[in-house]
Amino acid sequence: MIGKLVKLAIFLLIANALYRVAPAWVHYYEFRDSVKELALFSREKTDGAVVDHVMALAEENHVPLGRDNVQVSRSNEPGGQRLAIVAAYAEMLNVVPGYTYRWDVTVDVSAVRINPPTATGR
Fold first, then answer.
1. Domain contains 46
2. How much is the CA Rg of the chain, to the nearest whole Å?
3. Does residue 49 sit within a domain?
4. 56: domain range?
5. Angle at 78 between CA 77 and CA 79, to 5 degrees
6. Is the CB of residue 69 less than 8 Å from the CB of residue 89?
7. Is 100 helix (H, G, I), strand (E, B) or coil?
8. How many Cβ atoms from other residues are within 10 Å of residue 63's Cβ?
9. Does residue 26 sit within a domain?
10. Is residue 49 within 8 Å of residue 56, measured between CB atoms?
11. Distance between first and last Cα of the chain
12. In-domain check, residue 122
């Protein structure tokens, strides 16, 4: 009988942890995918406009992101131009009653626009 109660208590602790942690994971993956899409289709936007859009995506996905924690960079590489977006935040997860885990998250995405080949006159 006591063994069954212990197993039930362990099961309930695990179920509670999943219930509390799963939404943070879902929000993270949705936010990361949205930022990837933004990087792919925001080459013509200014850096400020990209940061504004990242902040809107963070709010939409319930991500506790500060504007200071978003960095946008551009670089020219052989064959194309790279747009990189880095966003970092920390989320406090109540895993089990009485224990809070600090989850440090960094979303680091980049996209490269390939320059079209130039005509060689042939």
1. yes
2. 21
3. yes
4. 2-114
5. 105
6. yes
7. strand
8. 23
9. yes
10. no
11. 86
12. no
Distances (CA, A) of 11 to 2, 91, 116: 14, 25, 57
Q: Total domain count for the chain? A: 1
Residues with Cβ within 8 Å of 12's Cβ and at least 6 positions away in sequence, in order, are: none
Two structure tokens written together for 91: 């989320």
Reading the block at residue 25, the tokens are 């994971």
Q: Exposure pattern of 13-41 as b/e (b: 16+ CB <10 Å)?
A: eeeebeeebeebeebbeebbebbeebbee
Lookup: tokens for 14: 């695990």
* CA contacts within 13 A on the Cβ side of 21: 14
Structure tokens at 95: 């895993």
Q: pLDDT (tens digit, 9 = 90+) per residue, 9-63?
A: 889 888 888 888 899 999 999 999 999 999 999 888 999 999 999 999 999 999 9
Compute the average pLDDT of residues 81-102.
91
* Closest residue by Cα to residue 110 from 69, 72, 76, 79: 72
- What is the pTM (predicted TM-score) of this model? 0.81
- Per DSSP, the three-state class of 84 is strand
